[in-house]
Amino acid sequence: MAVDRHHWFVRVTHWVNVVALVIMIGSGLQIFNAYPMFARRGMTFCCYPFAGKAIPHWATFGGWLAGARNWHFAMMWLFVVNGIAYVIFIYLHGEWRDLVPRRGDIRDSWEMLKFYAFVRKKHPHQGKHNALQKFTYFAIPILAALAVITGLAVWKPVSLAPLTNLMGGYVYARYWHFLVMLALVVLSAIHIFMVFAVDPYSIRSIVTGKYNPDRAPELRDARPFYHIFTRARHDVDAQA
Amino acid sequence: MRRRDFLLASGGLSASWLLAACGSRGPKGAEKLLKYAMRKNETLERGLFRHTSMDAPSSRWRNAGAALPKYYISDTVPVWDISARGQWTLEVSGLVTRPLTLTMDMLQRLPRITQRVNHYCVEGWTAVETWTGVRMSDIARAAGATPDAKYVDFQSFDNDYHESWDIESAMHPQTLICYGLDGRMLEPGHGAPARLFSPVKLGYKNTKYLTKIVFMPKRNGGYWSDQGYEWYAGT
After folding, report:
1. For chain A, how many structural domains are there in total?
2. For residue A238, what pLDDT is reported?
3. Of B18, B26, B69, the CB nearest to A62
4. Which CATH class is domain B32-227?
5. Which value does ipTM take for this structure?
């Protein structure tokens, strides 16, 4: 029996965000390729081991510097408006309760890691999301906000000089902007991997909104690539 | 087709569109939308712009010195050839009550400013430089720019390179017509005899090899702005 899992507003903002974020990152990397390092001219930079190495063409968007800048400075509005709409919605509609970590979620994260590492046999008990998911989904809007704030500091280093100075100047503002992007890429990559490797049934829930609770990872004791097709534990118990 | 299949299929389609779009310029039809966003951004940026917002590099940052790149669009470094062109002058014209033809001597007799500021390149690099020159606002006052002068075009002898500016940015106290860099007279590699330099605009707006300053009622595009880079390009 399928139940309703994601409100249409959450599904729409999720997919709009996929488009906006992919274009923001692709165009950002194309812009980065015009000067793929961080050092101020005549100085060195401490903390980037790949200075001078261009980002591969397939990961870029916009074709050339001006094209990428124009995409970046247009798509940022969709990214910002969509992100704000999502946060306001989950605040008013109550979804935030499934996302904000609580006391105990740190311990539960550790239990999840133990479970994924085969140290623990049974899947820890969870609500809508497991503790690792909660931390991830909670971090995403915060990282997105940081991406926007560091981006503003790079875009307007004179008009918003106090903001840029707060980040250590233009060079560091650009570096923080890059690192925040990297964090978003890493979390998104883990998210996509876990969707396919642990709970492919959740794809349905972010498209149509429906979810089959009998397929929940907790009931399948699902680890990456383990028990993807296993039936729910209570079914097994019932047969025994 | 069931609704669920349709949604799944369209999700897959948009994902493949996204993948196909990587490394590309994006859909052609979006260009109008991008231009619209550029205009809206310009309105916002002009709203944020203040003559009191100053660029002030930290004293911990070294001047770029010889590490400052030399950019020009001619095939070789543009050098003002006196034997062919006569003495270099800077012409100030357009919507002014007293058109000027400034020689280097006259330029250097105007109130001299030396400022240490950041250079923000559109490519993403930045450099600290110490510029010496004359405030654009002093030149505008000397020429008697009229109130209907809303834009200024800065023209050069580097293959007709030019960029036009909004008057507010041109009148910013850190917008200078420079003839000195790091305590020496400007070299041909950096725009000699004189160039425009301001931290309030990206590098490409700061015309080098300056010959004409024209006050205008309308904007006049520019070398890079006409090729797709933002016209406003404020920092």
Report:
1. 1
2. 45
3. B26
4. alpha beta
5. 0.89
